């Protein structure tokens, strides 16, 4: 049996709760522990309660646990909001200046610590995060040197004075004799680990995947929870001869990407619900003009501005049926950090091969939760640009009598592309229905042929598997994607539940052949998703023409699925189906 | 190079007498005078009668969606700065649905040219009011005559910091060719607004109306094209009804300059596999 220990760090937004969490995660990861951090924040910069839940374990941690062992509180709300999640005999570490309401019903050990005092005395008030790390680190049994190096790394850019002050605060807190803390059990020994590890979140992995795939142009508009991707590109591109443009809106962002993609550079944008709504126009234009682009949709609570800082998976319907009219579109749905990386790389190849828009769909928790994973190895990305104008076409440019047939009708629907600048490749592009030269045409026969050409391009993908199973000899299959996958993995771990679990990594086109097979193999498919209507289940029922054997497990209150909750629901399904 | 080298021979679907014929010819003549290789020129257009223009050029052409010619054109130019990129559209494109993009294109100063064919009416939708229609213009959506204040494109562009702004008239082809050629040569964002009469749906702002009401910058004493106040003054004094080069700041840094793009090969040349050295650089911060 593997073990888990969960800490909640809470305080007033803007006072360094997240940096305390990240510091602690780095220190623990450096010792060999596995960690996963989930951030809870609101749509404001300063003020309001915010917290980060960190689950520590001896093997790969795929989500945070529902039950918390330790709360570290910088403010009273962190206690009143979260003590319900605290386990029996749980510990609250709080600043001694706090006076929480005495509604403690359970058996709770509260330890008041001079977090503020230590910070003021040895550094400055701002450094109470550092004193908290000192106490917490000691309590967890982390060596002082490990904490020191983590602190030094964090404040590297702030200069020697700040580092020195923080180190003084850290040591004072670490060495402060506190008999109450000594009664608490330290963490079990860290697992012995040979492989090197990384700590990163989904948005980091997506940016990395795009860079490896040769993406050198991004246009985007800031939005939670997708902005990290454009921030990374802004930092990295200048050294690589790439460009990130912050546009006036999401319409401009996707349209600029289409321009850059048409010109021949691999280009992307990243957004969330409200921006995605504006991008529908661009998705249609890219689909109609057969221009490759990659869009990241980091889903959050909708509709409208919705829940900007809470996780949800409610864009399946909108994207599955994207835009007006019909056009080819690929939807990829990573479930892990590794898949964020790999599927983003693949997205650029798919966009080039099939000459259509590709959307990589994450959710807030997958995009923003840092976690430890085995380090990525350098593997050169196999760049496939799809069918391009041949050299002969280019050479015979001089004697060309008719323009380049950019939209030539072919058996698989894929027509060679040329880029502006290529002699012999001159052609027209239009969002109107067009003939093989890209010239407007409303002839019925041409229309039908062109519609069929565009929409048959993705046929081969329907036969390619996209459901990844973890078999446990189950009669039922619980299928999900995104951050819910990690919760599902943990929910069935170390149980005897007769449920196989699976994650789906492409929902358009659906892996129809494989899904039909799965429907034949299982008595029931439970689709676990974070939206009210069970959107993915609706799509599966419709596309697979199966009503009864596909059922929904949903959550849509802005919170992620909880391990206990999912375990209970699955137990319910199992007993009902005996 | 001649005008015909830039024509693909397709007969435009505009009404006979439409001002857009002259704009198309002027763009072709300007390209010929600058001897731009056809494969190195991209003409991007929006939607409306004017939007069809890109489809008549013997160059690369992209007929985009309503109001989006500028984001698309900027994407193309930034991806491959060796191309000559010209966006073309109508007053609805540039000053209604795409007005936000126009302001931001001006502000960025990407090195491309934007030609707006202004007929002060929505022609392709068969006669609806436009944001530059004059008060009193009767259209299907303003049966009693438009009462709204029109946008003044010149004041808007100069006020927003455009680095090249000129106005032409379809019936004055020679001047128009030279204004467009100079606009293409200008390093930065250039905007050429053309009075391009709609003979079908705008019975007010006709060729003869423009002949009577337009003045030319050559008739304005002491106009300095590099002086904002002078440019704003002549636009105000003429109520915008003036042709010629209104404003020109030749030495402003472009978006490409400011972002260091001119120090690198075009982005389109970067399609090589990423190296192990790059991978290490990008992943360093994530290692524990």
Automatic annotation (TrEMBL), chain A:
Pfam families reported for this sequence: PFOR_II (PF17147), POR (PF01558), POR_N (PF01855)
Entry keywords, A to Z: Oxidoreductase
Coiled-coil spans in chain: none
Official protein name in the record: 2-oxoglutarate ferredoxin oxidoreductase subunit alpha
Organismal lineage: Bacteria, Bacillati, Bacillota, Clostridia, Eubacteriales
Domain of life per record: Bacteria
PANTHER family: 2-OXOGLUTARATE OXIDOREDUCTASE SUBUNIT KORA (PTHR32154:SF20), PYRUVATE-FLAVODOXIN OXIDOREDUCTASE-RELATED (PTHR32154)
Chain ranges passing through the membrane: none
Domain Pyruvate flavodoxin/ferredoxin oxidoreductase pyrimidine binding: residue ranges: 209-451
UniProt entry tagged with the keyword Signal: no
Entry GO MF terms: oxidoreductase activity, acting on the aldehyde or oxo group of donors
UniProtKB/TrEMBL annotation, chain B:
InterPro entries reported in the protein's UniProt record: 2-oxoacid:Fd_oxidoreductase (IPR051457), OFOB (IPR011896), PFO_beta_C (IPR032686), THDP-binding (IPR029061), TPP_enzyme_TPP-bd (IPR011766)
Cofactor: [4Fe-4S] cluster; thiamine diphosphate; Mg(2+)
SUPFAM superfamilies cross-referenced by the UniProt entry: Thiamin diphosphate-binding fold (THDP-binding) (SSF52518)
Pfam (any one): PFO_beta_C
Presence of keyword Oxidoreductase: yes
Alphabetized UniProt keyword annotations: Iron, Iron-sulfur, Magnesium, Metal-binding, Oxidoreductase, Thiamine pyrophosphate
Domain Thiamine pyrophosphate enzyme TPP-binding: 47-194
Annotated ranges, domain Pyruvate ferredoxin oxidoreductase beta subunit C-terminal: 198-260
BP GO annotations: cellular respiration
Matches recorded under Gene3D superfamilies: 3.40.50.970
Listed transmembrane segments: none
Residues in coiled coil: none
GO MF assignments: iron-sulfur cluster binding; metal ion binding; oxidoreductase activity, acting on the aldehyde or oxo group of donors, iron-sulfur protein as acceptor; thiamine pyrophosphate binding
PANTHER family per record: 2-OXOGLUTARATE OXIDOREDUCTASE SUBUNIT KORB, 2-OXOGLUTARATE OXIDOREDUCTASE SUBUNIT KORB-RELATED
Name under which the protein is recorded: 2-oxoglutarate ferredoxin oxidoreductase subunit beta
Species of origin: Anoxynatronum buryatiense
């Amino acid at each position: 049996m593997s073990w888990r220990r969960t800490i909640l760090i809470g305080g007033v937004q803007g006072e360094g709760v997240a940096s305390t969490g990240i510091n602690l995660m780095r220190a623990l990861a450096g010792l060999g522990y596995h960690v996963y951090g989930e951030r809870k924040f609101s749509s404001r910069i300063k003020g309001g309660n915010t917290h980060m839940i960190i689950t520590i374990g001896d093997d790969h941690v795929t989500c945070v646990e529902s039950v918390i062992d330790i709360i570290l509180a910088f403010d009273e709300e962190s206690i009143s909001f979260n003590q319900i999640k605290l386990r029996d005999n749980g510990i609250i570490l709080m600043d001694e200046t706090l006076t929480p309401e005495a509604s403690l019903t359970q058996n709770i050990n509260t330890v008041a610590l001079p977090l503020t005092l230590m910070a003021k005395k040895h550094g400055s008030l701002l450094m109470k995060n550092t004193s908290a790390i000192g106490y917490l680190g000691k309590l967890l049994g982390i060596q002082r040197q490990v904490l020191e190096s983590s602190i030094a790394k964090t404040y590297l850019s702030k200069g020697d004075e700040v580092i020195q002050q923080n180190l003084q605060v850290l040591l004072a807190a670490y060495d402060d004799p506190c008999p109450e803390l000594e009664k608490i059990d330290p963490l079990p020994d860290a697992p012995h680990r040979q492989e090197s590890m990384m700590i990163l979140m989904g948005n980091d992995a997506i940016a990395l995947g795009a860079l490896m795939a040769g993406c050198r142009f991004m246009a985007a508009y800031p939005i939670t929870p997708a902005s990290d991707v454009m921030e990374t590109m802004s930092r990295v591109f200048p050294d690589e001869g790439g460009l990130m443009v912050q546009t006036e809106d999401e319409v401009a962002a996707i349209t600029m990407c289409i321009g850059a993609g048409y010109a021949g550079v691999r280009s992307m944008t990243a957004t969330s619900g409200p921006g995605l709504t504006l991008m529908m126009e661009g998705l249609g234009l890219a689909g109609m003009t057969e221009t490759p682009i990659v869009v990241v949709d980091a889903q959050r609570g909708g509709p409208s501005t919705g829940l900007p800082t809470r996780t949800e998976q409610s864009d399946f319907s909108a994207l599955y049926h994207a835009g007006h009219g019909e056009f080819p579109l690929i939807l990829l749905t990573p479930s892990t950090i590794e898949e964020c990386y790999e599927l983003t790389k693949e997205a650029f190849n798919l966009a080039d091969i099939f000459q259509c828009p590709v959307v990589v769909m994450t959710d807030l928790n997958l995009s923003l939760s840092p976690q430890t994973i085995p380090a990525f190895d350098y593997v050169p990305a196999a760049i496939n640009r799809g069918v391009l104008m041949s050299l002969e076409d280019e050479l015979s440019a001089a004697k060309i009598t008719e323009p380049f047939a950019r939209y030539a009708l072919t058996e698989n629907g894929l027509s060679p592309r040329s880029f502006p600048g290529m002699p012999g490749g001159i052609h027209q592009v239009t969002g109107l229905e067009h003939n093989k030269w890209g010239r407007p045409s409303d002839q019925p026969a041409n229309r039908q042929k062109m519609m069929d050409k565009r929409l048959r391009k993705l046929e081969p993908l329907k036969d390619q598997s996209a459901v990844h199973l973890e078999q446990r000899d189950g009669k039922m299959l619980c299928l999900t994607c995104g951050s819910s996958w990690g919760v599902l993995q943990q929910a069935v771990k170390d149980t005897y539940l007769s449920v196989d679990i699976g994650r789906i990594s492409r929902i358009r086109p659906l892996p129809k052949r494989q899904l039909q097979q799965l429907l034949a193999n299982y008595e029931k498919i439970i689709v676990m998703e974070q939206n009210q209507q069970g959107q993915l289940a609706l799509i599966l029922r419709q596309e697979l023409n199966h009503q009864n054997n596909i059922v929904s497990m949903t959550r849509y209150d802005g919170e992620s699925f909880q391990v206990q909750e999912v375990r209970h629901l699955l137990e319910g399904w199992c007993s009902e189906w005996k | 190079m001649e005008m015909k080298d830039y024509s693909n021979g397709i007969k435009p679907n505009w009404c006979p007498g439409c001002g857009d014929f002259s704009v198309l010819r002027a763009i072709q003549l300007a390209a010929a005078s600058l001897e731009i290789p056809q494969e190195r020129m991209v003409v991007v257009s929006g939607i409306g009668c004017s939007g069809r223009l890109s489809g008549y050029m013997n160059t690369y052409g992209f007929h985009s969606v309503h109001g989006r010619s500028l984001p698309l054109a900027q994407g193309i130019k930034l991806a491959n700065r060796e191309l000559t990129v010209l966006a073309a559209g109508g007053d609805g494109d540039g000053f209604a649905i795409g007005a936000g993009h126009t302001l931001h294109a001006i502000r960025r100063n990407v090195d491309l040219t934007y030609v707006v064919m202004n007929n002060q009416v929505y022609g392709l939708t068969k006669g609806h009011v436009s944001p530059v229609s004059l008060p009193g213009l009767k259209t299907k959506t303003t049966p009693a005559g438009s009462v709204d204040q029109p946008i003044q494109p010149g004041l808007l562009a100069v006020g927003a910091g455009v680095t090249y702004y000129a106005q032409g008239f379809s019936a004055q082809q020679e001047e128009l060719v030279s204004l467009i050629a100079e606009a293409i040569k200008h390093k930065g964002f250039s905007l050429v607004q053309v009075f391009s009469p709609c003979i079908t749906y705008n019975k007010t702002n006709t060729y003869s109306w423009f002949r009577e009401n337009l003045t030319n910058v050559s008739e304005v004493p002491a106009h300095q094209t590099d002086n904002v106040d002078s440019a704003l003054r002549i636009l105000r004094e003429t109520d915008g009804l003036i042709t010629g080069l209104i404003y020109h700041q030749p030495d402003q840094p472009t978006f490409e300059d400011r972002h260091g793009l001119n120090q690198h090969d075009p982005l389109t040349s970067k399609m090589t596999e990423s190296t192990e050295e790059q991978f290490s650089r990008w992943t360093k911060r994530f290692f524990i």
